[in-house]
């Protein structure tokens, strides 16, 4: 075993050492225990490996610091059960994720989706802080915020651009969270009553800021102020979007008359219940288009969500999202 002492220095999460090693196989094995199985290789034989991994786990995510020192290639394939945010704090990395090529720097980081293939090259001197997010927890948060049961996985744009004002602030929040963990003010164990709130706030802000196939589903805070029968009607709609619902069906689910529901929806949305239903179905269409494989016809997606007249569907979609369905580029394609 080539395990060595972790070098002193102000590296993130210094109080939470996982391993340090100059042995390639040992480094791969330790990192795999935290994340997933992967291939790891040195691209230059003349460099000395100086691998280090610091790690602390919360309830639904973990914080990590990793360096290899040398130039290495890493191929985990699909991550499966988690998303992985990688933010270089020194150096750069080249990443192939799904159909996109990324150059990761301290100003432009990467967000690896759970079900897209990934291959990376960390260049010499690259050091990163990483956030591992449980897929089931993120999916549950989206469904809670949106009121929609997701038909597929959450898919993010894999490039995190910290030059955007909102994402720049989010990046500073991430660094503050790492610093709080270093000071013993966060990630202190299962007895911390504030830990789940910190994690949900971080994930919620990411969902609100980063382009994804679900960002348009997230409700605004005002949605929580609607009358109870409007909330019941919305919940019923969203649970049955693939069914041929009538106004009578929706009103019965809410326990009111059709006339009462019409007036309530006019006050809440300036729309009829069936117009709101159509908007909710368009949201599902957009989510599907943002993850559409090249071989899937747009008409098949539209028909699944109740749109049988393609010309009318295209016009409705354009009015809602400002572009035609055919102009909606999947997030994981260059």
TrEMBL record:
Transmembrane regions listed in the UniProt entry: none
Source superkingdom: Bacteria
Key words, A-Z: DNA-binding, Transcription, Transcription regulation
InterPro entries attached to this UniProt entry: AraC-bd_2 (IPR035418), AraC_XylS_family_regulators (IPR050204), Homeodomain-like_sf (IPR009057), HTH_AraC (IPR018060), HTH_AraC-typ_CS (IPR018062), Tscrpt_reg_AraC-type_HTH (IPR020449)
Keyword Transcription found: yes
Domain HTH araC/xylS-type residues, every copy: 231-331
Keyword Nucleotidyltransferase found: no
GO molecular function, one term: DNA-binding transcription factor activity
Gene3D superfamilies according to UniProt: Homeodomain-like
PANTHER family on file: HTH-TYPE DNA-BINDING TRANSCRIPTIONAL ACTIVATOR EUTR (PTHR46796:SF12), HTH-TYPE TRANSCRIPTIONAL ACTIVATOR RHAS-RELATED (PTHR46796)
Protein name according to UniProt: AraC-like DNA-binding protein
Native species: Amorphus orientalis
């Amino acid at each position: 075993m080539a395990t060595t002492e972790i070098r002193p220095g102000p590296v993130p999460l210094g109080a939470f050492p996982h391993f340090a090693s100059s042995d390639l196989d040992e480094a791969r094995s330790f990192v795999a225990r935290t994340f997933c199985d992967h291939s790891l290789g040195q691209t230059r034989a003349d460099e000395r490996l100086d691998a280090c991994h610091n790690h602390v786990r919360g309830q639904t995510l973990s914080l990590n610091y990793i360096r290899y020192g040398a130039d290495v290639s890493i191929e985990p394939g699909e991550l499966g059960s988690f998303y992985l945010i990688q933010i270089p704090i020194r150096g750069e990395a080249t990443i192939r994720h799904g159909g996109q090529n990324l150059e990761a720097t301290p100003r432009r980081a990467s967000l690896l989706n759970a079900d897209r293939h990934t291959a990376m090259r960390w260049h010499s001197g690259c050091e990163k802080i990483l956030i591992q997010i449980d897929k089931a927890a993120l999916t549950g948060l989206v469904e809670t915020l949106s009121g929609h049961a997701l038909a597929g996985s959450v898919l993010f744009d894999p490039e995190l651009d910290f030059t955007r004002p909102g994402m720049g602030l989010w990046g500073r929040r991430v660094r503050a969270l790492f610093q709080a963990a270093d000071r013993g003010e966060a990630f202190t164990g299962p007895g911390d009553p504030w830990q789940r709130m910190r994690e949900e706030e971080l994930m919620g802000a990411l969902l609100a800021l980063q382009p994804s196939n679900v960002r348009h589903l997230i409700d605004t805070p005002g949605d929580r102020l609607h009358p109870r029968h409007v909330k019941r009607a919305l919940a019923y709609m969203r649970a049955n979007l693939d069914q041929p619902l009538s106004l009578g069906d929706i009103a019965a689910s809410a326990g009111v008359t059709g006339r009462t529901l019409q007036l309530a929806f006019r006050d809440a949305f300036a729309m009829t219940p069936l117009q709101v239903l159509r908007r909710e179905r368009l949201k599902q269409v957009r989510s599907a288009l943002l993850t559409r494989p090249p071989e899937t016809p747009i008409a098949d997606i539209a028909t699944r969500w109740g749109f049988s007249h393609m010309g009318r569907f295209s016009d409705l979609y354009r009015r809602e999202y400002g572009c035609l369905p055919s102009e909606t580029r999947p997030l994981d394609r260059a």
